[in-house]
Amino acid sequence: MDSTTDGTWTPATTDSTSSEYQYTTLYKALQCILLLGCAVILVGLNSLVVLSFLFKRIPRTLSNFYMFQLAIADGATGFFVFFNVFSNIFYTLSKSTAYCMFETIPAISCLMASTFCILGLTIDRLRALRNPLVYIPDMTTKKYITSALGVWIIPVTVFFILPMAWYPHLEDTPLKACHTLYILKREFTSYFFLPSIFLIFASVSVVYVPILKMAIKHSREIQAMAPDQNEIKMKSQLQILKTATMILLPYFAGWMPWTFFTAAIVYNDDKFNSPGGIFTVTLYIAYPLILTSGVNPIIYAARMPEYRQAFRAFFGCQTQMIGHKLST
């Protein structure tokens, strides 16, 4: 397969036997700008959500706790994205296996924690709509522990500890430079990483089918009945559901293209051993994936009055008490 020379990276011969791919100066400069922008957006916006929950400016509910954990995972992803700038500037860091592991594997673990947050939030919405009269959103010590373990235990053990102990050396990889596909063992990506992403997305999609059916049913019932306390509670749950759906759409749009293109490389010997056009595509479509982690706080502010008031308070804006008249 021909090596790409489209301004992204070029092959350089080393030791007269193997090809070493070097990113062009133009691509490095562009990547540094994009990475810095992504890091600032992710850390800055998600910090608002984290601080809002910690300082009790938003209700301590289970759905908000999942959004809080999602903000932690997304903000941490932005923090580790920042270190990619240095490996782009300094040639020796781009060839360092230890540094590549430091900047890449924690970010992968945080991204996987984000997917488990999405799954947990989806299951929480299913429970809320299935049994709206008995569903209790308020947090307890048990809920804090179980939801935190559900989000973080697999990302930490499988997607952080395991790849930290089981990894290739960059000089033994086809690219010979730091990249997500090559700092992870190909077997790990093939049998753990990609299947987990597909499984989580499939699970979320399957769970959302009954959720949407129940949401349509409850919306019709609310329109046909006089408002009472139960109807107001159901409207609140439907509002949260709409917010969760808006979170899912950009998440799928960002993750799925990268996942499919990555699968096309990892499961094909020629494309994996001789990075070419498809590999170049993955370099660029990774940025929408990363930026989806900064979209969520904007959605919260647009859809949920309590988040909007909390964000305004952090910027010193005067807030006024408004009725929680939620649209359906």
Automatic annotation (TrEMBL):
Alphabetically, the GO molecular function entries are: G protein-coupled receptor activity
Fetch the SUPFAM superfamilies from UniProt.
Family A G protein-coupled receptor-like
Check the record and name the Pfam families matching this protein: 7tm_1
Lineage: superkingdom = Eukaryota
**G-protein coupled receptors family 1 profile domain sequence ranges:** 45-300
Membrane protein topology class: Multi-pass membrane protein
- Which keywords, in A-to-Z order, does the entry hold? Cell membrane, Membrane, Transmembrane, Transmembrane helix
Which residue ranges does UniProt annotate as crossing the membrane?
33-55, 67-93, 105-123, 144-168, 188-211, 243-266, 278-302
Record-level GO cellular component terms: plasma membrane
Keyword Cell membrane annotated:
yes
SMART domains linked = 7TM_GPCR_Srsx (SM01381)
Q: What is its main location?
A: membrane
Q: Where in the cell is it found?
A: Cell membrane
On whether Transcription regulation is a keyword of this UniProt record, the answer is no
| Name the UniProt record assigns to this protein | G-protein coupled receptors family 1 profile domain-containing protein
Q: Which organism is it from?
A: Capitella teleta (Polychaete worm)
